[in-house]
Design goal:
The complex is a heterodimer of chains A (about 290) and B (about 170).
Chain A: E1 7-10, H1 14-24, E2 28-31, H2 37-42, E3 50-53, E4 63-66, E5 69-73, H3 78-82, H4 87-90, H5 95-100, H6 106-109, H7 114-120, H8 126-133, E6 137-142, E7 145-150, E8 155-157, E9 160-161, E10 168-174, E11 182-186, E12 196-205, E13 208-217, E14 224-225, H9 227-233, H10 240-250, H11 264-285
Parallel strand pairs in A: 1-3, 2-3
Antiparallel strand pairs in A: 4-5, 5-10, 6-7, 6-10, 8-9, 11-12, 12-13, 13-14
Helix pairs in contact in A: 9-10, 10-11
Chain B: E1 2-4, E2 19-26, E3 29-36, H1 41-48, E4 67-70, E5 73-76, E6 89-91, H2 104-111, H3 121-134, H4 140-147, H5 158-169
Helix pairs in contact in B: 2-5, 4-5
Classes of the chains: A alpha+beta (about 290), B alpha+beta (about 170).
Amino acid sequence: MKPAAFSYHRAGSVDEAVALLAELGDEAKLIAGGQSLVAMMNFRLARPAALVDISRLTELRYVRADNGGVRIGALALHRDLERLADSSVLTGFEVLPRAARYIGHYAIRAAGTFGGSIAHADPAAEWCMAALLFDGEVVARSLRGERVIPVHDFFTGFLETSLDPDEVIIEVRLPVRRTGAAVKEFARRHGDFALVAAMAAVEMQEGRCVDARLVFGGVAATIVRAGPAEAILIGSDLGPDVIAQAADASAQAADPPADIHASSEYRRHLMRVLAARALEEAISGA
Amino acid sequence: MARVAETSAQDEGGNPVDIHEIRLTVNGTKHEIAVESRRTLADVLRHDLRYTGTHLGCEHGICGACTVLVDGMPARACLMFGVQADGRSVETVEGLGTPEALNPLQRAFTEHHGLQCGFCTPGFLMLVTAFLRENPSPSDEEIREVISSNLCRCTGYQGILKAVRAAADSGATD
């Protein structure tokens, strides 16, 4: 189909973008890579009255090391993360290029942006999962100023976030390294949204697990963190029995939806299997 | 980019129409046109500029039939508005060979049964053109990964894989 009419405004700077959003009001939307938004507009699932185009704000296209963490500019492309080769940035974030390869296809990854994915808040999106796995923070700006939103407060529902309508995401900060973090997904076809996706990371000290993260995509209205499963892992030796026990517990972290692609039971089965695989890989890399 | 006729242009229902004057280059030819903001790049190419080699399949970014190159990178032309291509350089299938003189990639597609009905072919050709410029000696695995971007319902992909393999092996990256 063809999209409904809207007025188009191209921002030449971040200041201009926030001013335009303030002026145009709640019915305006930002467009960056457009890989989700334009598809929704073509279906008329989205009918914004105005679009503010920020795709040319190249000053927001970066991936930088920052004090042991990493700062990802809102307009960093999926492809920029897929092709990340700078070891000073990559150390502790090696899972990012691996996760990027699950996102759509070549042409999609050459257009879609990290910030756009976070703002879109699809519950199966790799970047939303990574943002939670790394205890990320979203930096948002409006005419009222800048604020930092912890990712665990950011995703509020299906395609819903705590961003205000006049706010622009500037960058996402991932402050904690997670060496060996692993991503495992199952999709019917390569490049499709995962039926279930799992990301896991563990930290070992003297043969004991001192920190663990396990997050799922595709199993609820938002990204889900499997807290009880993490609790089983922390303090343990991460042996095969513990992994099996944590994987079982992780399958209770959500009540996954049923649709034409998979039943709820099957998604729960995938949660268990993918959690175990992600944990095994994370443990071997930690 | 200039907004024109902001107050005067109206549709049949009397609603204002958002029209912008843009400049873009298609296959080396410069164009200056006025486009409505909601017109996708695919429709601007096909309807306004008559580059009808760019085909539209699904119009929501799944099938890849409308793939063109924008500033050298592959793009789904249905997921970009024409007004966003202002100042950009676009390449379409018309910029490859001609019917009389196919380019090496197009020749490889004909020789290796890389197409049957041909509807998806322009999208595959543009996708692979970008890919081979970036990666002139890909592995079969890399070719498979890239051509999974686009849908083809005739060939079963084996012919396309062979064609891309042959084009890469002959050193034809363009």
